[in-house]
# Entry
Amino acid sequence: MNEQTQPQRKPVILSGMQPTSVLMLGNMIGALRNWVYLQENYECFFCVVDMHAITVRQVPAELRKRTLDVAATYLAAGVDPNVSTVFVQSHVPEHAELAWVLNCYTGFGEAGRMTQFKDKSEQHSDNITVGLFTYPVLMAADILLYQADLVPVGEDQKQHLELTRDLANRFNHLYSPTFTVPEPYIPQSGGRIMSLQEPTKKMSKSDSNQNSTIFLTDTDDVIRNKVKRAVTDSGTDIRYDSENRPGVSNLIEMYSIVTGTSVADVEKQFEGKGYGDFKAAVGDAVADYIRPVRTRFDEIRADVPTLTKILKEGAEKAQHTARRTVRKVYKKVGFWQPEDK
Ligand code: ATP
Ligand code: LTN
# Structure
């Protein structure tokens, strides 16, 4: 290397998923597949956001198990722990520390406008906690701690990314440049996979109707059956029109992504065919897409000592970066440190 050239800092990525259940097709298509291909060119931090998961009530033993399930799924999908840092959010206490500070810079009205808060408080009307309200601030802390440039997420997280950017800008202007202002990375196609049973709602891993969601642990037969029973619209031809025909359009989008075919070519391929033939093809294609992930998941999940080692090393590495940001922030807000004297 030329002595004059400084080694270039790779841009940073951070993203995470909640261990509220095993992951599903929407998580894979909306976010995880992008993590895998971006990891070569970015310095990546991928966390299992267990602290976010307790914003709605969890069964402790299940949460423990799901945390390992989600970490194993990241690896099964192709996240390489030798390249990317994979860790559990609660293992790095700086997430809670920065979240507290950012809470003190977030307007009450600003947090109240978050649509995910409104949706989730309707779903969990018997237990609307302050934690659920302040969920996006913890997410902002996750991102800003690592000075992330890019955050690969599904469409539903766009508003949370806007809040994160606002908080970063606010803090930088109040004090001095402290945080990188991150950009969302939302796929053009597949950023919002819809529920198989209610195609106007997004597919979600905590949907109460199991038939709405294709889990990455579903067997080939279960996948084919769920697709066969998917709600479609009155109509007979295979034509993309997400506004008027959300059911069939969702299946077209899924098929297009998992087979790498354009939507126009999918329409051409199924011209003159009915919903029955099309659903059978979608079921097969999705099963083919998920099968290798499921097989690798079973192997990785069975080896808990290796998984533990990866997560422990990941947390140490993540903490190293996170601590630096918290130290900077504490100094700027005026927390006295012994070395200040
Ligand atoms: P929950 O149902 O527990 O609220 P979720 O299924 O929405 O969770 P998260 O853990 O909140 O999943 O999200 C993980 C990632 O998957 C995020 O980047 C999110 O934007 C993305 N994602 C979630 N649902 C979909 C979907 N239906 N289509 C595309 N991307 C999605
Ligand atoms: N809120 C996100 C999960 C999440 C996240 C993050 C995503 C928590 N912290 C940081 C990207 C970056 C969701 O998908 N519901």
User: Anything to note?
Assistant: The domain at 210-299 is CATH 1.10.240.10 (Tyrosyl-Transfer RNA Synthetase). The chain has two domains: 12-190+304-333, 210-299.
